[in-house]
Amino acid sequence: MARRRKLQRQDAWGPRPDWRTYQASLKREKPGNKGRWIVTCGLIGLLAGVTVFGITDAPPENASYLPASPQSAPPDRLQTENPAPNKIAAEEPSPVEPIPSPLPKAPVQTVSSVQYIDKTDVQAILAKQPFINLEEETYTFSFDGRLFNVDTSLDPDLQRYLLQAMQRDTSRYIGIIVMDPRSGRVLSMVGFDPEDPLHNPCLTSIFPAASVFKIVTAAAAIEKYAFGSDSTVSFSGKKYTLYKNQIKKDPKGWVRHFTLRDSFAQSVNPVFGKLGALVIGKTGLEEYADAFGFNQPINFELPVTPSHLSIRDEAPYQWAEIASGFNRQTTLSPLHGAVMVSAIVTGGGNLAEPTLVDRIRNENGELLYTYQPATIRRALSRDAAAVMKKLMTETIESGTGRKTFRGFRKHPILSRLNIGGKTGSINSRTHEGRRFDWFVGFAEEREGSEQIVVSIVVTHEKFIGIRSHQYGRMAMEKYFQKFFSKKNYAGTRPSQDEKG
């Protein structure tokens, strides 16, 4: 009976298939097996590629400073983007085809790519380098077992000239900065500290700013309180003192009247004291000191001590001291002094971000870093910068810089320039016989676009040697002597047709 039912089912389903036909039907009923087999083979192949070629998203040790570069990368690019985490997997061909190698056919150790570095990386690399008083334009150093070549912004001729010109026997400190105000490129940076040869006075703010701070006060008065170069301020007493009775609103006794232009050029303390105490006040002084970069770090490749300013509440006489530079608590570094002047001489009112490094290459000559000019912030408006430029020019023509620059209108080099500056000096309270001496200024072509700014501090000992503004004049003469020589040569060079 059971056999009959079985035969009936077979008759209902049709003739019973042979063994081969039956196996083929089973494969048709399970189509997913082949797909899973392909996926499995693909995963095995991908894992094999990871093992053999080291494909991974994690960077190798010290990857920030790896040498090598993709040839297609632009040479002036600062930093490569990180690839998408799944980029390699997404671009893999189907595993049913032969899997091509994801890397060029070369030994594994030669397969790498340049990882471009930024200014923060450069700061980390150079933080402990003795980067002072270099005499060559190119500097080679070792970091993390690798060699790097730095192309600096320095002018070697100017650098060597100023190094030789420094009068060391009468000075405790000397710091000299010469900078291109448009690009921020430092053309010369020389310093002297007999007690610590590795200390760079150009980058430290241990020096009282003295009357250089009058730049900040004048800018605030011009831009925020509508003072012009001919605006007049009255006071009683002498020009270079600062007593409380000299900053009273209504002066009595021997009353004198000075324009802002003459007050700046001659560095008249009572005028700037009255501006600070009665016009600008604590809030205005803080605002413009902040705009000019006080109490803030400077984004430079080497460590720079921030310049310092501290103002007390409800202390008008202290405001007067700060506004006139008649104090030792407001400090300034020579590099910061050059940055301050850059906002004025270019006419745009922007503080240039300084740089000492143009390019960095690895030991294979591959480019890792290229500096791009940048600004820090706007310190003052274009109109205010134009007025400030006139005030600084007056300092050279009739003010405290007049003696040093006497006869520059007939000088073969200086007569071709517009020159401006600001002097400052103050005695040290803690070291008898020590005097801080400042000059910040600019020089630019009368008929052309070339410009430089200078910032110099000299701490004199018992005897006063070369003054800061004398170093300033020397730097201007030397730089533009070379510049005009090259310019004249380029302008008179014969053409190919004339060479015939």
Brief synopsis:
It contains 14 helices and 15 strands.
Which features does this protein show?
500 residues; alpha+beta; 35% helix; globular; disordered N terminus; disordered C terminus
Give the strand tally: 15
- Proportion of beta-strand residues: 15-25%
Mean pLDDT, nearest integer? Answer: 81
How can the largest sheet be summarized? 5 strands, antiparallel
Multimerization status = single chain
- Point out poorly predicted stretches: 1-17, 25-112, 492-500
Rg, nearest Å: 35 Å
Structural class: alpha+beta
Shape verdict: globular
The helical percent reads 25-40%
Distance between the termini: 122 Å
Strand order of the largest sheet: 4-3-15-14-13
- Count of helical stretches: 14
What does this 3D model show about the protein?
- With about 500 residues, the protein is of the alpha+beta class.
- It has 14 helices and 15 strands.
- It has helices at about 1-15, 20-30, 30-55, 85-90, 120-125, 155-165, 215-225, 260-265, 270-290, 315-325, 335-345, 380-400, 470-490, 495-500, and strands at about 140-145, 145-150, 170-180, 185-190, 205-210, 230-235, 255-260, 330, 350, 355-360, 365-370, 375-380, 415-425, 435-445, 450-460.
- The strands form five sheets. It has a five-stranded antiparallel sheet with strand order 4-3-15-14-13. The chain has a four-stranded antiparallel sheet with strand order 1-2-10-11, with helices on one face. A two-stranded antiparallel ribbon has the order 5-8.
- The longest helix is centred in the C-terminal third of the chain and has 25 residues, at about 470-490.
- Mean pLDDT is about 80; it is low at about 1-15, about 25-110 and about 490-500.
